[in-house]
């Protein structure tokens, strides 16, 4: 059998290219989203948990930040599931919300520095994982 025939038969079984990066990105988006949901719930229900004494971070109070993180995290979890199912729109949306989360955590550095730096690093890794795979690839 020629290599062309074997190649055609292989493509018939796997019409889409899979990417481990996209599987990783979908999982990481859900993890970062879950972290952000936790941040939001803590900010809503336990103002004393964070280190800022004035109950303000830049321009928002903890209640506003709590809702921001809760909504952003929930969206990131849904986007992560959509990345795993191979939705192309989810890759672009995942990048957008990872950027928003990273910027938000820069503003949140005063309240919880170590957690914010860790989450910013995860967001940067997520952006790479979403932009590195080829255009037609899907998560495994």
Beta-strand content estimate = 5-15%
User: What is the succession of H and E elements?
Assistant: HEHEEHHHE
CA(first)-CA(last) distance: 29 Å
Q: Tell me about the biggest sheet?
A: 2 strands, parallel
Task: Round the Cα radius of gyration to an integer and report it.
Answer: 19 Å
The number of helices is 5
Shape verdict = elongated
Strand order of the largest sheet: 1-4
Unreliable residue stretches: none
Number of strands: 4
Helix content: over 70%
Mean pLDDT reading:
82
Domain count = 1
Global structural class = mainly alpha
Describe it for me?
With 140 residues, this protein is mainly alpha-helical. The protein has one domain (19-139). The chain contains 5 helices and 4 strands; from the N terminus they run H-E-H-E-E-H-H-H-E. The chain has helices at residues 3-13, 20-45, 62-84, 88-107, 113-131, and strands at residues 18-19, 56-57, 60-61, 138-139. The strands form 2 sheets. A two-stranded parallel ribbon has the order 1-4. Strands 2-3 form a two-stranded antiparallel sheet. Helix 4 (88-107) packs antiparallel against helix 5. The two termini are 29 Å apart. Residues 21-133 form the DUF7144 domain. Pfam families: DUF7144. It comes from Actinomadura litoris. This is DUF7144 domain-containing protein.
Question: Which key features would you list for this structure?
Answer:
4 strands; elongated; single chain; 140 residues; mainly alpha; two-stranded antiparallel sheet; 5 helices
